[in-house]
Amino acid sequence: MPPATVPPAPSLIPFHQARQPLFVGVDLGGTRIKVGVVDDLGRPLSHLSVPSEPRTGPENGAQRMGQAVRDAIQQAGATMASVARVGLGSPGTMDIPAGMLLDPPNLPTWQNFPIRDRLSHHCGLPVAFQNDANAAAYGEFWVGSGQDWHSMVMFTLGTGVGCGIIIDHLIFDGENSHGAECGHIIIDHREDAPKCSCGQPGHLEAYASAKGVLRRTEELLASGRKTSLSARVSAGHELTPLLLAEEAEAGDELSLEIILETARYLGVGAVTLMHTIDPSGVAIGGAMTFGGHDSALGRRFLERVREEVRRRAFPVLAERTVIDFARLGADAGFIGAAGVARLEHTKQKTAVQTKTQKKE
Amino acid sequence: MPPATVPPAPSLIPFHQARQPLFVGVDLGGTRIKVGVVDDLGRPLSHLSVPSEPRTGPENGAQRMGQAVRDAIQQAGATMASVARVGLGSPGTMDIPAGMLLDPPNLPTWQNFPIRDRLSHHCGLPVAFQNDANAAAYGEFWVGSGQDWHSMVMFTLGTGVGCGIIIDHLIFDGENSHGAECGHIIIDHREDAPKCSCGQPGHLEAYASAKGVLRRTEELLASGRKTSLSARVSAGHELTPLLLAEEAEAGDELSLEIILETARYLGVGAVTLMHTIDPSGVAIGGAMTFGGHDSALGRRFLERVREEVRRRAFPVLAERTVIDFARLGADAGFIGAAGVARLEHTKQKTAVQTKTQKKE
Known about the structure:
2 copies of one chain form a homodimer. In chain A, a hairpin with a 3-residue loop joins strand 1 (22-28) and strand 2. Chain A is of the alpha/beta class. Residues 1-8 of chain A have low confidence and may be disordered. Chain A has helices at 58-75, 115-123, 132-143, 205-208, 210-222, 229-234, 241-249, 253-277, 296-312, 315-320, 332-359; strands spanning 22-28, 32-38, 48-51, 83-90, 94-95, 100-101, 127-131, 151-157, 161-167, 170-171, 281-285, 322-325. Chain A is globular. Chains A and B meet through helix 8 and helix 10 of A and helix 8 and helix 10 of B.
């Protein structure tokens, strides 16, 4: 069985070793809110998680997030004054410049909510706001797999396929807060292609997400192909990517085939992004990475993505573009959100300095 | 018959009306080199064209380009001193930061040639170097269809499908000079999808380029579908997008169907780019725009692209992203190259000012 996809808790540094200013990252999900204090070099000082309880409504959520921020600061042994800014990574749909949640499917009743300003009110600190997949990508760019890269694309494989694109500290959030929604690039133009969770046919997410994997598995099970999955499902096990991984590692050919086919689709998507962005590297993270570098199956998955890229990308890109697993695991969310806060803080500082220079 | 796709000569402004500094744009193609002097507001003062004669070799080419630059300056009634910089838009493959042509298929024998520095030597002015499709996109961004946009994607439809992506004066040339090669995004992941001119299956260019149009037309002709094209081809007419346009306007259903299908494929590609970049707008230019806004067929083509985008893009993007024809026609190349020169000149000026400020 591959290692669980839940990463270990991050190693924390003590307050006296931290380089100031500090930032707090908040990773808002449909189930949990992860919060951590991060120093100016991207190292976490504290890390906690509270339930989202989306049904209690957005104002209550913002209040509990604000409390979690203060708790994380206390846990870090830090003071409010040492924290320059809070970063919030949130699922969409959203209006990033306005700091608004618009209609987030995972947070029902949180529609049209000015979450940035309400969180700022409840924690008493300025808040930077960003899409969660973009924040995670920025975390990897800042202190993870992309820390030596000038530009990168990150895919986050889970129930869906998230994506973030960074070029030299520019986060692609787009003109309408829909930048880097690359789970929704079209890899099959046909009208009757498999449907994405968004309802449209042929999107990458319809093939390379957990949902896509399960759809293809169910099709193959229904076709009567021989596989040890049938017995597991009959015995009451839920069909999940983890179950596939277990059976693939135990020698089930069909399970392995589906996992490697998923890698092939991801490779196709990576090539489209490489021919669009031509980034330094492509990072692959999220819950569905089959154990990553620590597992033979994970390494085989990655090798299959790389093989597809080598076969299909322009030769110079096939040779030079790094394709690798992301490094921060589930911490990418809050570390990246802290990085977004730092980015905004730095920009504002520069703007103030420029203003001062102009006045002189 | 739709209007010829060759645009009218640009209207030129006299030297005394120009806002200085001036820039010279050079659009290097496999057949012709177009050169023009452009003022600080993007208005052309002169415009000429000389044969590329690629077979005479790159040094000879650079020499004739240098002469054309001086001729264009003279035609504009300007002096060398009034020109701040020359911009060169060139087909790839190339190394943009190094100013090198690497292996351009349209310029055989021009391999591994330091074209930026050789042109600079021959014209006596500093030269900025960029990919031709990126330069054309920057021209549209600067003073064409995108002049009111913050970010844009431009498709150039011709023998192939060129592309350029601009976000707020940032030209996407990528880490390896392969940015925005979006003719080569994969819109059909299957191994047996139609092949692109680059040899790979399923690329947008295999469907939405002139080559793709002709391949699909030949397939339908071979299948025995009734069409007035058969008689034209039998009478010795060459099968071209222009012939298709003529027959479509004369009422041939098959010709119209192929043209609108091309628009559909382009719409699919546009949606992938919209879900990646989320730009202010998407511009469609190049030789194969079926007469553009001036022709009923061109307008129908554009409407079909927009329809596909409305059906497939995220609702907010379908509503807000402008999809339109490019405005500069064949002048986009040299105007854009001049814009690239201006961009580099401005950056250098800013850098010098910052340096001066720091010294103070």
